[in-house]
Structures are given as structure tokens and as C-alpha cells.
Amino acid sequence: SIILSSHLSLFLIPLPSSVPHIPLLPHSTPCNCPWDGVQYYTMDSSSPTPMIVIETCWPTIETFLHLETSIAIAQTCHSLHRAIIDADSNKLKVSHFEVDNSPFPSSDETPLLKNWHTAPARIPHYLSRSLNSIHFQSLRRLALDFPATKRRDASGHADIIDDACTSSFPIFATNLSFARNLEYLYLNAGRLMATERSGQLEALYEIFAENLGRCRKLRDLTVNNSGVVRGIPDPLHSVALMRAVIPTIQKKKIERLKMVIAGRPSDPLYDRKLSTSGINPVFDFFEAALSVEGLRVLELTMSRSTSHLNALVEAAMVSGATKPLRLTKLRLNHEMNLPANRGHDSPPVTFLSVAPLLEYFSECYSLESIFLNLPDVCWEGEEIIQALRQLLENKPCLTSLTLSFSFFVDRRGTMMKVITECITPNIASKTLCKLGIFGLMDVDENDILQLQLSLQASGMICDKFNVSNNFGGKWDVMIMNNRKTVEGEAVTYYTDAFKDFQWMENEYGGVECSLCQRVCKVYRPHCGRWVIQCELAHHSNEHTQMRISPTI
Predict the structure, then answer these.
(1) How would you class 341 by CB atoms within 10 Å of its CB: exposed for 0-12, middle for 13-18, buried for 19 or more?
(2) Which of 93, 194, 392, 465 has its CA 20 to 30 A from that of 367?
(3) Are 273 and 246 in contact (CB under 8 A)?
(4) Over the stretch 222-272, which tens digit does the pLDDT of each residue have?
(5) Which residues pair with 2 in a beta bridge?
(6) Are the CB atoms for 148 and 125 separated by under 8 Å?
(7) Residue 348, C-beta contacts closer than 8 angstroms, at least 6 positions apart
(8) Residue 503: phi, psi to the nearest 5?
(9) Where on the phi/psi map is residue 381: left (φ > 0), alpha (ψ -120 to 50), or beta?
(10) Mean pLDDT to the nearest integer, 9-25
(11) What are phi and psi of 161, to 5 degrees?
(12) Tell me, what DSSP letter sits at residue 353?
């Protein structure tokens, strides 16, 4: 739905699958509604006809809203349309506007539900015409995905057109200068990557940067700087877009910052020119983000790039005394999944130690949520152990912790011990509500048992427990996911994966594996079947899992 704001109140324009009713206005009586179960109200006197209301509103309101909805809203009271339409610009007052990349129907015979998800597939040039008709001064939340849209007249061409670069983004970048009340912005620039390779968007990004800086109330910024171009296997990121958001972040007024950065630049010539001049936009962005003192949420996702993570580490090393000490949520996600046909041809990966990065956030004592997904080589060494300890200890507000080690082999045998020691106060106080550990290899069996028993004592349940046995009392932890139980939830051997694992250990101790002819431990994950991971399969790198009948 679209929320319309006036000086006195907020009015909802309901779509068929959303808002159930419009608030009853004084001295009004109910009237019939175009949809079942919904009531609208109309004034008893001085109620204009629907056609007069439509004619006095902006000319193409029926293009962007359901005509039935517009009529019903207009009938609510005599002067409602004057609260909806700005008198000076004759544009629609909208406090929230959102467009996403919902897929188009696969067949013309598929009926389309009338809601905002399907608008680009139903209404020709929906996004560009909508952006041109919105009163940007009224906007408070704006989320744009720049989807493809339906054409008004195909004339022998395709019915769908991608007009993001030619109309939608230019209109958005220009009108953004009027969005002085904008508080939240989500921008997905994926569809802009193909055009940017030719440098055609350089001026538009400069305009976008200037106008974004005029949004003085902006506190929440999310940018998806990742797109796929046909013929290029890896996702790309926009160097110009990265540079465009830096001035706004440097003003240090952003409180929630989320950024997704793909690996390769979409305009390699522009990137090479900047590099020769000593300019690294990715590093400059990270340096600006880490220096925002009032930042509360920081989520960074780096895809298929070694240099991005290294730039983040370098930014943490050179940042000054200004740190985001009020940070409550930290998410550092590095995705290094390469295409199958390029896995063996990829250049050698050389990562910097992430110890300075973890130490940088060690003084953020208000952290409530920590998510770390880093490559396995980043977890090697004593300094990273100490840095992780500094990050996790003395965090009394920590409620959620997720650590993904990317199959790091803990030869020192200290990683799980450090994690348990640091979060023990949170477990004892029942502050911790969620704990996830993924891909940590060669862990001492007793360390896992100790941690799980303490979690059980605090009222937490193990949703998923997937480990494989190793020699010498060592376990490879694939998935260990614990959460706090909800009120009234019964915990049994069938709902707690770790309890079920313990029961199988005590009841049977193991079964003979037909692959290695040894007695291997078995467990039953939450899926409801017995599973065995034999040592031979592990050491031959096959990781073969064999299903065993539940009637063992």
C-alpha cells in the first residue's frame, strides 16, 4: 500500500490484498466497497462525484493507483483530495513508496493480483511515471529496485522493457533533491551495471551524490551495489555509485548502514584511472563508514573479492579515534563462492589478517548482534584468537552470535574454548537468545558437550546439530544452531537435535559402517532419519552420508 500524508493525519490507500478498512471520519456513513469485506465511508453532504475528484487530482492518478481505490478514497470526504494532492506541484503526497523485482508472469493467461508487487507488470512505464508524479517533499521511506516494466505499445517489439537507465534512475536522481524529509532509502543498482560500463552514468551519479546530500533527515541507508551483466560470469559493482554515497556518510548522520559490494568494477577503465591516481573508492567508503560515531547498525557484504576484505582491514588499521561506540548490530559477510568452471583457474588468494578489524569493534560494548562470515585463512594464528576474545568479551547486551569459519581447521584446539569463555556470562544471565557456529573443523568433543550443556541449562534448544567424527575425540562442526525456546514450547528428544544425538550415543554408541567396516557414531538430525558420517568418507574428502533405517 501507499501511505498518503497530510498535515493532520495519515491516510491509507488499500490495495486488494492489504489494508482492511479506512478509518471512520466524523459525520460519515458507510457505503459499498469494490471488494468484499472492506467498508468505505462517505460524507452525508457536499460529497463530490467521483469524476470531479479524479479530474481535480493529478491527471494520471488512475495509472498508478486502482481507479476503484481512488474513487473510494475521494468519496471519503469532500476535501480529501486536497490533502492528497500538493496544490503547487499538483503531485501526489506519498510518505512511503516501494518497488521490487517481482518476477513477471510466465504466461499471459496467468491472472495478476492487483497489488504493488505486480504493478510494473500491469502498468506501462510504472516506475518512471510514478517517480515523476510523487511529491518528494512528503517522502519518508523509499525503496527502489528498478525493475523491468510493461511497455505501453509494443509495436512489434517485446512487451517488457528495461528503462532504468533511460528514465527511472534519471528521474529519481533529479527529484531526490526535494526529498528533505527522507529518513530511509533502499537502492538496488543491479540493473544499472550494463550501461555503466560505457561511462554513460557518470554525470547522473554526480547529480545523485549532490541530491543525496540534501536529504538531511536520512538516517537509514541500504545500497545493493551488485549486478550481473550478460556474458560476464562474476557480479559487478559500480565504482561511481560507491563514490556517490561517500559524501553523505562522511557527514556522520547515518545511523543504519547496509552495503552489498560485488567483486569486479563495472567500469574497469574508470577504476584503472582512479587507481593510477591513488584513489581506492572501496577503501574510502569503508574508512568513512567506520568513522561514523553515531552508527548503530553496520552490515557489509563483500562478494567474490579478496581486495574488498583487505580494504576493510586496512581502513580499520588507519581509522582514527572516532569509532562507532554506539553500535548494536555488526554483520561482516564475505562470500567467496566462485563459479565451478573458474575454481581451479582463480589467482591465489592472499588475505590480510582480520585481527585489526575485530579489535576495532572490541570497544563497542552495546553490541546486541554479531555476525561474522570470513574465509578460513583469516582465522589462522594466535592474534586472531586474541582479537576474537576482545570482540566477544564484556558484551552484556549480546543476544545473537553467528560465526562462520568456512571449514577452518582449528589445529590449536582453542577456538571453541574462547567462544565458550566469552559468552558464558550471557548464557548464565539468559541474555543470549541465538547462537550459530558453522564450518569449524577439528574441535574437541568435550568443548562442544560443555557448551551445549550450558545452553540447555539456560533454556535454549538446538535446532540443528550436524557434526562428523574425526580421530582422537575431535569433531568437525558443520552446523550447530541454538536458539531460545518460546514460552510453552516443549523440548523433547525429537525437537532438540543435540538431545537426540546424545540419546543415540548412549543407546547404541554406533553402528558398523559398510563403507569403512568400522563402528561409527550415528545421529538423527531434525529431518527424522538416522545419518552416519564415516571416518573413511571424511578423510577421502568424499563426505559420503548413508541413510540408515529408523528401526535400528
Answers:
(1) exposed
(2) 465
(3) no
(4) 999 988 888 787 888 888 899 999 999 999 999 999 999 987 888 777 778
(5) 13
(6) no
(7) none
(8) -60, -40
(9) left
(10) 32
(11) -135, 145
(12) P
